[in-house]
Each structure stands twice: as C-alpha cells, then as structure tokens.
Design a protein that fits this description.
By secondary structure, the protein is mainly alpha-helical. Helix content is 60%, strand content 5%.
Length: 283
C-alpha cells in the first residue's frame, strides 16, 4: 500500500476540531439519568464525547443504547448524531492514514536490526496501534505537535509488542535497556573501529556492568530447531539428532546387567554377596 503524504499543520488543526475532547457532565436523578454535554466548540460536536456518553448509557441501561436513546442523551436528532459520528470517524481515519510515515520513521531510527526480519510487519502493526492511541489521546490545546506526541506512543507500542511476543516473558523495561545497549554497540564500533568491550558498552549505555550482563543474558535469541542452514538448507535439528544405528549395541550392557542382577537376587543372600564381591558387581 502506498503511504499517503504528510498532512499540513492547518489540516491537522481542522481534523482535530472534529476529535477534540469534550467535557461530559452527567447528572443522575431517581430512575432517570440525564446526560449533558458542554461543547467546547459551539459549532463542531466531538466524536469522543459522543462515544463516552454511549459508554455511560451502556452502563446505566446494561445494554447497548439505540441511536434514538443516544441522540436524546446528547440533545441532538438522530440524523445529526449519525452525521457527527461519520464526520468524526472520517477525520480520525484520515489522520491515521496520513501519519503512517511516523511508524516507518520510528522503525528505521530505533529498530534497524528488525528492518529486514520476519517480524517487521508485526512490529509495524504494533506501531500503527501506537499511532492510533496517540491520535485518540492527543490534545491540540497544549500546543504540542502530533508527530512529537505520537513518536512516544509508537515506540512504546512496538517495545511492548516485542516484550509480550518473546518466548520468555521478561520485564517490560528490559527491552528498552536492550535497545539502548544495541545503539551503544553500534556507536562504539563506528567510533573505535573495533569490537567494543563490555565495560565500554555499559558506560556508553549508562548502566552498570552487572546490569549489562543481566540484560544480555536475558535477551539471548531463541533459535528454532527447524531453522535451515543458509548454505545447505538443512534443518538444524538434523545436525544434533542421533542418527547412529548402533543404539541397540549400546543398550546390550545395560540389559545384561539387569539380567545378571535378577540371577544374583535369586541366590541366597550370603551367596549373592560373595558372588558380587568376587566379580566386582557391587556397583
């Protein structure tokens, strides 16, 4: 899929007016709940506030509210409500679509080692989820750029996905430290033109040597026994499996010892002890 171009700031402002957070005031009286929405913009209703009212109605009614009930709770007609939701969803989808480049930017900057890996698409999917979270939580009133705010959530979602999908469950903060260690290794390699030592890497990453060794030990990759050798295309399990046909010969001494023990046990205790000690069969 071709990624759309980045939207100008004026278009961001216009779209976020359709998604800007509203203050929802709920007042309850016996047996009847009235939902009042204080709109921050007198002309543009907000999608998130409508969905919040829908959630509150669901809790009160203990079922999904109808469009008529939701329209009555928001003091709008059904057609106005549907138009509001359609415009809000369209604005949200457009913001997501035109900011997908931020996901690729984060992948190329912080996760270069996964750029050509088989998990690249999965990590990009996690990054898109982080972008969606950023758009849903973004507040234009704070005068912060969306790209700056979204970078944190995209990176957070990718790191969390890597942590939860690992074979061994490790603390969430461990993956962040591992990424810092990888970045420190690359910088030291280019600066010194030689493999860096453990002490240099730990100092560059801002952690202790014990912490470095702990993270390195916990971050060792899990290799599949069915992975293929890039040259011979032979599965790894074939190189460690026992293909020797002499297994029966190795089992013969053990079977013979079991049979001999059965014979000695059939003798009287004193005779059995003499035979074992005479021929060294005590062990």
């Amino acid at each position: 899929m071709k990624i759309p171009p980045v939207l100008p700031s004026s278009e961001h402002t216009r779209l976020f007016k359709l998604l800007q957070t509203m203050k929802v005031k709920i007042s309850c009286v016996p047996q009847i709940c009235f939902f009042y929405i204080q709109v921050l913009n007198s002309f543009v209703f907000i999608l998130q506030a409508t969905l919040k009212v829908k959630e509150d109605l669901w809790e009160v009614l203990e079922r999904e509210p109808t469009d008529g009930e939701l329209a009555e709770a928001t003091n709008m007609s059904t057609s106005q409500l549907r138009k509001l939701i359609a415009h809000g969803q369209a604005a949200r989808n457009k913001l997501i679509k035109h900011n997908l480049r931020l996901v690729l930017f984060v992948m190329n900057k912080y996760f270069q080692e996964f750029a050509n890996g088989r998990n690249f698409q999965d990590l990009c999917q996690a990054g898109v989820k982080g972008l969606i979270t950023a758009i849903d939580r973004f507040e234009p009133g704070r005068k912060l750029q969306l790209s700056t705010y979204a970078l944190f959530w995209i990176r957070h979602a990718i790191i969390r996905s890597m942590t939860l999908s690992s074979f061994f469950k490790v603390p969430f903060g461990l993956e962040s430290v591992r990424i810092e260690i990888q970045k420190a290794k690359k910088k030291l390699w280019f600066e010194n033109m030689r493999p860096p030592t453990e002490e240099e890497i730990a100092k560059k990453a801002g952690i202790s040597l014990e912490r470095y060794r702990e993270v390195t030990k916990a971050s060792r990759p899990i290799l599949s026994l069915n992975r293929k050798n890039p040259v011979t295309q032979e599965e790894f399990i074939n190189t460690i499996a026992d293909n020797d046909d002499d297994g029966n010969e190795r089992r013969q001494p053990a079977l013979l010892r079991l049979a001999l023990d059965d014979v000695l046990d059939s003798l009287k205790p004193k005779e059995s002890l003499v035979m074992r000690q005479r021929y060294g069969l005590t062990h």
